């Protein structure tokens, strides 16, 4: 279902002139008055908030995670009595990030979440089960958006560290839609497959928060006969988009959020690639302008078969999903491909780097069910192009560690932990 066709199916040029440019201008004028950070940025770049909005965007520098923390104090003062909610996340730099939200934010963001969830075509009779570990707050918010769409049967199902045992009763809820994060899906997949492999009631799986490995996705679709959708967003930006039933990328909602690319690469007439930077036009208390969220994406401006004209993105990589060894860059996905070389195998993987006797050490943490494949995995890793040299010259030592599912207790597993002295 397309909830707001007047925006989602509008001619893109007309949308830019009628909606996007006025919204950008009003954002610039507002933030120039209200935020010392933005005033400083505008003044330094020699631009006025009332200048042509696309020119303003072209001249303003990209905003980093460090810049984001400079908004906090102004946002707190601005929120004052309108403060409705504060979201706190650990933040990748080790310093907690805070986002202040007003009731206007809550309503605007709920509307956009409704548009994204409407695109998943969940029926009013469906039972939607949120499967996760720990704090259910994000799901309460998804449940609100679903309820606003008339889907009332939503259940939060908390998983304990004994996965198999706590998952067993999930099937008794007869879910039609399962809503979860990819790392949890990978850890619980064997049990899920056992439970739902021959069950036709489960129709859809919706994931968010992390990237889902493309081969794992195909495997789930084939084995469970389900349709898979993703919700896309971030703490600082809230919802940004979602997949439609054409399953050819994530629609972004550019009447809400404007996208710039860092050093865009032209792929063809309608497609570009680069790191995404977002401008949130509908965020009230803590808006961002050209904010680098850390995703490298591919964007396609051609019209989708679902009828929406809004561009579609595919997330290619996270900028922080890598590490370097003596200047050579390695990516998490390359290791994942080497370890899980067959389509039929999948599961979690974590890379832990440390320094041992002045040398780098890489420990790859894997599920214990792969223990009998240890030699194959080692061989496959030793044949990774760039790694081979570093291993042979003993610049780095490699170790595999096999752990039970319960090894990870938090909701999201960090892909890479870098504990080296010199990074
Ligand atoms: Zn579409």
Going by helix content, strand content and strand pairing, the class is alpha/beta
**Architecture per CATH nomenclature, i.e. the level-2 architecture of the largest domain:** 3-Layer(aba) Sandwich
Spatial strand arrangement across the major sheet: 4-3-5-6-7-8-9-13-12-11-10
Q: What global shape is seen?
A: globular
Q: Major beta sheet, specifics? A: 11 strands, mixed
Unreliable residue runs: none
Give the names of the bound compounds.
zinc ion
Question: How would you portray this structure in words?
Answer:
By secondary structure, this protein is of the alpha/beta class. It has 2 domains: 1-319, Rossmann fold (3-Layer(aba) Sandwich), CATH 3.40.50; 322-418, ANL, C-terminal domain (GMP Synthetase, Chain A, domain 3), CATH 3.30.300.30. The chain has 14 helices and 19 strands. β3, α8 (137-148) and β4 (154-158) form a beta-alpha-beta unit. The chain is globular. The mean pLDDT is 89. Zinc ion is lined by residues 244, 246, 251, 304, 306, 308.
List keywords for this structure.
single chain, 423 residues, alpha/beta, GMP Synthetase, Chain A, domain 3, 2 domains, four-stranded mixed sheet, binds zinc ion
Give the SSE layout.
Elements: H1 5-8, H2 12-34, H3 36-45, H4 53-59, H5 65-69, H6 72-79, E1 83-89, E2 97-102, H7 103-118, E3 128-132, H8 137-148, E4 154-158, H9 163-167, E5 177-180, H10 182-196, E6 204-207, H11 214-224, E7 227-234, E8 238-243, E9 250-252, E10 257-266, E11 271-280, E12 291-300, E13 312-318, E14 322-325, E15 328-331, H12 332-339, E16 350-356, E17 359-367, H13 374-382, H14 385-392, E18 396-403, E19 416-418
Parallel strand pairs: 3-4, 3-5, 5-6, 6-7, 16-19, 17-18
Antiparallel strand pairs: 1-2, 7-8, 8-9, 9-13, 10-11, 11-12, 12-13, 14-15, 16-17
Helix pairs in contact: 2-3, 7-8
Bound molecules: zinc ion.
